[in-house]
Design goal:
9 helices; F-box_dom; F-box-like_dom_sf; F-box domain-containing protein
Amino acid sequence: MNSLPPEVQLDILKCVNFDQLLSVRQTNRYFNNFIDGYENELARLKFNKLNIIIDSNINQSNIYEVIPLESVISEFILNDQLKEKWQEAIAKSIPLYLQDYEERNLFAVKLDKIYFDLKKKKLRHYILKLPNFPKNIKEMSIVRCWLERLFNCFFEYTDFKNLFNPEMINLLFDNDKSIPLRFIIQKPSLNVGSLSYGLDNALKFVLNHLSISESLIIDFNENNILEQQIDILFNILTKEGNKLSQFCLKSYRCFEMSRLYELIFEHITSKDCSKLVPVIMLEYISELNFEVNKEAENVEIKQFNGVKYTKYQITNKHDPNLKFSFCNAEFKEGNTDFTFKIRIVKI
């Protein structure tokens, strides 16, 4: 393989899985550097779940496998300018994770991966204990190296309760354009009731440091949705379609989500929708049953197993060729409020 042209070597490496790629890396320095150069085009290590957990919650049972921090090799060369910035960050004790200063917890990264043992599917838990407050240049380098490795992995989902500190991420990589500073996650979810640092901070982190291949899910559970949060969510739904292909919002304990539906409907019928998220799903409750807007076209209503399904289309006033499909599932159990599940898709 050494004698083959680089483009042929790349084609061959595209056909192997991550474990095989790791074996090739260990052959010699040339292939290690070659794979680094084309890492975005080659197989990624896949995990089922990425989480940031409180360190004290990790018990000492053998279900966890602690990853040695020194187990990766970095080719990164620190220049004097960045070294000075790092030293300032060390002096200020800038944390790797966003900190709630009332509790001051220490955190660790938890990675879940499915494996097979005698044809039985099992789940292995890996723990990565990165320095929460890097105390020297070596620890800063270790954190940078591991974050870069995590950026190059693929995660099926996560339910973020704690977050990496964006300030530290930007300091470590200093706007290095060669490294996408994003975690690749198929279906991340945010549970508003368990977020430590507010919905606005969580959404900023999602937009700036996640690459989402499928959908983002936000569940308010029993929490009220504030007017400010409605504005933040509406702004994302109408302007971040290039970053989010599907956005699902759930709220079964408050009525404010209907306000968001009204804003989306108004936007679709009267404004430029070029940046709208292509697929929007809303799940919420209402005191009143669902009424089809008079501007709806091709209305279809069906009943099945106690659920009322309403399908219709809306045409954008600025562009008659731009249409949106709405599908609403409506049901009511006993004397409870109506529950709506609405799916809005750009046709």
